[in-house]
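[recover] target loaded
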């Protein structure tokens, strides 16, 4: 199914998935069908100067139900809804239309298109538990337009302003950049039933995929950010997170802070019952600040919030919402390093901490770093929490965006050097929390 209102001049072309979803190695994040999708960062300007699009696709001939959650850049969920997908279906989303205009999708077993390759081609499939068939007024996964009051709540929460109504009235839920741009991230989970539950709700995940969320690795997707004034557009596949019911692999440690035990993607909410593989915490990427890329390099960085965040005072923002990093090393093309490391490390600049939030866009060499001395090179990012901070392990995802002023931009995922899944391990000798030192040493961060 594709809604005409979603795209006017933009068409996303997908490749038809094979009947049996591709298998991949658990603990290695790859672009294969998963049970959870992550859009690591979005930007939406009310005047449409910036907008984000993404799609959710079904890699199976059987119907699927997907649960979409919109989070602030402080990992506070603010909106969720269900989407019914027929076999090999695709649903496209324009986040401006969704968040500013309040137009949620209306899908369902009776109204969603069924192609000739769908298992339910002959007759409408039965709705999932808790779902209507999608006819107008019948309930989820068919939705009415969001009210002006609720749209005002979304606008405030996603721009870091005081929330104007509801239980969180007067509180804040996101960072305030002062530009009116909505920022946050999106997760999409395969689910067994329609619900109004966020992923941080008890019972959403139950071992074996028998809670609200399922363990079916059937969905895939892509995303695109458009920055019209700068003539920029860049995108990639969504982050595809697989489920694995083997407790020897999909396990997470919820012991006291300070240990280095494995994780799952939703460990902070589920205690490992989500059965999802984790992301990595060590990344590497190139940066270019000249030549054809006159606009330089931005990093779009999503990070595990390490806890179940809630709206907070707009005046006194809780310190625990600020995340730390163990080490950032910027190499130029002659291998000269600039090393930033939390605490007394013997390196300069000390205490550089550019990735404070759960998701953000940061300019390389910009006002908050990372610091550079030469226009070209690469960056090593150890995005685990600094020693002495709860939960040393900290999942992350990094997207690199290279821009040429007024001409074009290129976006791609950074290299992953580790994975925090049980059994995911490291790659070619890299540990999951190592710092680079003098004379070529690679050792656990101290």
């Amino acid at each position: 199914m594709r809604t005409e209102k979603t795209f006017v001049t933009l068409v996303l072309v997908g490749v038809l998935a094979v009947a049996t979803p591709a298998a991949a190695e658990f603990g290695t994040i790859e672009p294969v069908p998963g049970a959870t999708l992550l859009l690591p960062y979005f930007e939406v300007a009310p005047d449409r100067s910036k907008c984000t699009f993404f799609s959710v696709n079904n890699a199976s001939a059987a119907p699927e139900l997907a649960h979409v959650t919109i989070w602030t850049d402080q990992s506070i969920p603010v909106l969720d809804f269900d989407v019914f997908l027929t076999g090999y279906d695709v649903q496209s989303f324009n986040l401006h239309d969704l968040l500013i205009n309040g137009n949620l999708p209306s899908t369902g077993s009776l109204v969603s298109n069924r192609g000739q390759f769908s298992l339910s081609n002959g007759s409408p499939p039965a709705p999932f538990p808790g779902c209507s068939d999608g006819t107008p007024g019948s309930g989820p996964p068919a939705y009415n337009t969001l009210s002006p009051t609720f749209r005002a709540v979304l606008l405030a929460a996603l721009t870091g302003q005081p929330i104007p109504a509801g239980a969180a009235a007067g509180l804040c839920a996101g960072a305030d950049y002062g530009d009116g741009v909505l920022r946050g991230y999106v997760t999409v989970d395969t689910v067994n039933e329609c619900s109004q539950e966020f992923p941080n709700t008890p019972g959403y995940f139950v071992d074996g995929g028998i809670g609200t969320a399922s363990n079916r690795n059937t969905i895939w997707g892509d995303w695109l950010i458009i920055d019209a004034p700068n003539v920029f557009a860049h995108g990639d596949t969504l982050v595809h997170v697989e489920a694995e019911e083997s407790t020897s692999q999909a396990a997470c440690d919820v012991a006291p802070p300070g240990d280095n035990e494995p994780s799952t993607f939703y460990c902070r909410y589920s205690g490992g019952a989500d059965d999802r593989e984790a992301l990595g915490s060590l990344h590497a990427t190139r940066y270019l600040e000249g030549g054809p890329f006159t606009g330089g390099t931005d990093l779009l960085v999503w990070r595990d919030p390490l806890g179940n965040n809630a709206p907070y005072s707009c005046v006194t923002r809780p310190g625990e919402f600020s995340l730390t990093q163990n080490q950032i090393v910027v190499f130029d093309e002659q291998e000269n390093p600039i090393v930033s490391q939390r605490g007394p490390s013997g390196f300069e600049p000390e205490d550089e901490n550019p990735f404070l939030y759960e998701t953000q866009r940061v300019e390389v060499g910009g006002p908050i770093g990372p610091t550079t001395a030469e226009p070209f090179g690469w960056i090593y990012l150890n995005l685990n929490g600094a020693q002495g901070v709860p939960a040393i392990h900290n999942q992350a995802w990094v997207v690199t965006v290279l821009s040429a002023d007024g001409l074009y931009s290129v976006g791609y995922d950074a290299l992953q050097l580790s994975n925090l899944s049980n059994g995911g391990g490291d790659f070619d000798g890299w540990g999951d929390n190592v710092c680079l030192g003098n004379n070529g040493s690679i050792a656990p961060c101290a």
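[recover] notes: The helical segments are 95-99, 148-159, 267-270.
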